[in-house]
Specification:
The complex is a heterodimer of chains A (282) and B (323).
Chain A (H helix, E strand, L loop, with lengths): L1 H33 L5 H4 L2 H11 L14 E4 L5 H11 L37 H16 L5 E6 L6 H12 L5 E7 L2 E2 L2 E2 H4 L5 H7 L3 E6 L3 H13 L5 E6 L22 H13 L3
Chain B lengths: L6 E2 L4 H15 L4 E4 L3 H4 L2 H6 L4 E3 L4 H13 L4 E6 H7 L1 H9 L5 E6 L17 H7 L4 E3 L4 H13 L4 E4 L6 E2 L13 E4 L4 E5 L3 H14 L4 E5 L2 E3 L3 H11 L2 E8 L4 H12 L4 E6 L9 H7 L4 H19 L1
Parallel strand pairs in B: 2-3, 2-4, 4-5, 5-7, 6-7, 10-11, 10-13, 13-14
Antiparallel strand pairs in B: 1-8, 6-12, 9-11
Helix pairs in contact in B: 1-8, 4-6, 9-13, 10-11
The chains are: A alpha/beta (282), B alpha/beta (323).
């Protein structure tokens, strides 16, 4: 019995790992195709979003606004390529549409907007999406609804004061239906987060705000899945996952490079990136 | 300021708006109210005392309050969120723009201490750019009641108009303009006094200043039409144009910076549709100071005597043009 469960889980993890690589492929493909978009902070969040959209969250691509669905706030809205790739692969809109990223009259705006199927709320100005997530979780409590609200924040985003206003409100209202995930890739627009505005100890800061906190390797799918499962079912406090990640993860020459925050690959870089991502699939 | 026509108001518009909000809690059992720890000043506590389960003091954190309000509204629940005008329209303006107005969500904003009605609190608490910022954001509607009756009725207009609505309220009670039979609609105005020589448009506390000025003007033989433009956005272009076609002169008086207020808006309307001698009163690109409301209005050029002077000059200009 245990062996069956273990192998079920292994199969799930394998599927999720493969899906994360597909997500990565589409991130690189759309940003290359339109020659614009935030690639580094998308690649660092691939495992987290894949686990959320393909396993953890209760969502319905055929009914994107179903009232009892789980919500996901892409508070680090600039990394929307990874959100769009996840939503398209999950069936919220055609995968072909990904190549319209940021283009005239596309549904895939430069930063997420509420009208795109699967996008729960407009985000993009850092820090505010997290506050919106807190409001949604409060509203869910008021409605007696049982869904969860997830929010993905960048570590640079923690510089914003409103993050800590929102973190305070979340503990005041004991929002145990709220899960914040920090994509801790230690790079932001101008360089290394630790030197631009040191935010560590991030885990102890959230603990001091009376959150339940776990710190994990954000690219280890087994850890990501297990911690999200724990967070999903946890009761009594809001839950924060500090996920240590690598900006540009999965493409060797993009990893830990500031310059890949917001620049697109050229054709040669694109071919190399795709071959690395597809190589990792085998 | 002297007026024979108007009675002193018993309560400020901030209190009247919140009192109606508390009443409305029985009509609509769904909406929630948020305050940024000035509930005893905005009087939102009147709602909170009756409905503690849907009243949220979000602490002294306006930016997060509006973000949370957006979260409620994105889930389909209307929120009324209150604070002082300066903090709402400047500190939290980006949240209001990108997270409430852009997705066109049902967040209704209770904004107290509009203009120099925050007189004795000083400049940090005097919202004198609020109409400019709020009117400029797409999807936002802007209302300013002139007295307690208008405040209660405009609460209903705000609540029943889809999308975000900003209501500017006053710190202190001034005068009663309306009785209970008065009606208010989004995009409407009320003509309080008919006249033939000049149209005076104002809103909020400046309405009673304009009424007082019109009485003075009548004594010197000038017949002023007084319009309460309580709906600033959208505004009642039809009534205002009809009026200036009749009077041939337009004066806008507002407790706000002259720049980018209703005066600029109506001046352009007149230029575009029917140019007439025009002037607008407001703060002349300057901050005021602490002090008695009436003394501040006198010093900064907004009182009824300034309206009187400006109107008299406009009528003289009109007659010169006609001569």
């Amino acid at each position: 019995m245990n062996q069956v469960l273990t192998s079920d889980r292994e199969a799930r993890l394998l599927k999720l790992r493969q899906m994360a690589q597909q997500v990565r492929f589409h991130v690189v493909d759309m940003v290359h195709h339109v020659q614009s978009g935030h690639i580094g902070g998308s690649l660092s969040a691939a495992e987290i979003l894949t686990a959320l959209y393909f396993d953890i969250m209760n969502i319905d691509p055929d009914n994107p606004k179903r009232p009892d669905r789980d919500r996901m706030l892409m508070s680090k809205g600039h990394a929307c390529p990874v959100l769009y790739a996840s939503l398209a692969l999950r069936g919220f809109f055609p995968v072909e549409e990904l190549r319209t990223l940021r283009q005239f009259e596309s549904r895939l705006q430069g930063h997420p907007v509420i009208k795109t199927p699967g996008v729960d709320m407009t985000t993009g100005s850092l820090g505010i999406g997290f506050g919106v997530a807190v409001g949604m979780a409060m509203e869910a409590k008021l409605s007696g609804a049982s869904y969860n609200v997830y929010a993905l924040l960048g570590d640079g985003e923690l510089n914003e004061g409103v993050v800590w206003e929102a973190a305070s409100a979340a503990q005041k209202y004991r929002l145990d239906n709220l899960v914040a995930i920090i994509d801790r890739n230690n790079l932001q627009n101008d360089g290394v987060s630790d030197t631009i505005m040191p935010m560590e100890p991030i885990d102890r800061k959230f603990e001091a705000f009376n959150w339940e906190v776990r710190r994990i390797n954000g690219h280890d799918m087994q850890q990501v899945l297990q911690t999200l499962e724990e967070a999903r079912d946890f009761r009594g406090k809001p839950f924060c996952i500090v996920a240590d990640t690598v900006k540009g993860k999965g493409v060797s020459f993009m990893e830990n490079q500031r310059s890949w925050h917001g620049s697109p690959p050229n054709d040669e870089q694109y071919r190399q990136a795709v071959s690395e991502i597809q190589g990792a699939l085998v | 300021m002297t007026t024979t026509a108007l009675k002193k108001a018993a309560i400020p518009t901030r209190r009247a708006y919140s009192a109606r909000m508390a009443e409305y809690g029985a009509i609509d059992s769904d909406f929630a109210v948020m305050d940024a720890d000035i509930g005893y000043s905005t009087y939102s506590y009147l709602f909170g005392d009756k409905y503690p389960g849907r009243y949220f003091n979000m602490g002294i954190a306006e930016v997060n309050m509006f973000a949370c309000a957006a979260g409620f509204a994105a889930n389909g629940r209307t929120v009324i969120a209150g604070s002082y005008g300066v903090f709402i329209t400047m500190r939290a303006v980006e949240v209001i723009r990108s997270f409430i107005c852009y997705p066109n969500l049902n967040v209704k904003i209770l904004s107290s201490h509009g203009g120099l009605t925050a007189a004795i609190d000083g400049v940090t608490h005097q919202a004198t750019e609020d109409i400019a910022t709020m009117s400029t954001i797409p999807n936002m509607k802007v209302l300013v009641p002139a007295d307690p009756v208008a405040a209660g009725k405009l609460f209903d207009v705000s609540f029943t108009s889809p999308g975000p609505v900003f209501t500017r309220l006053m710190r202190d009670p001034y005068y009663e303009i309306y009785d209970d039979s008065a009606s208010f609609v989004l995009g409407g105005s009320n003509t309080l006094r008919e006249g033939s020589d000049i149209t005076i448009v104002s809103y909020g506390d400046m309405v009673f200043q304009a009424v007082a000025a019109a009485e003075e003007l009548a004594r010197s033989g000038i017949s002023a039409e007084v319009i309460d433009a309580y709906s600033i956005k959208p505004y009642d272009a039809e009534t205002i144009l009809q009026s200036i076609r009749k009077t041939g002169a337009l004066l806008v008086a507002e407790n706000h910076q002259r720049k980018n207020g209703l005066g600029y808006e109506l001046g352009i309307l007149s230029l575009r549709e029917f140019p007439v001698p025009f002037d607008n009163l407001g703060l002349r690109d300057m901050f005021a100071e602490s002090g008695d409301y009436y003394k501040l209005l006198e010093k900064y050029g907004l009182s009824s005597s300034w309206i009187n002077k400006a109107a008299t000059a406009l009528v003289a200009r009109k007659e010169q043009n006609n001569a």
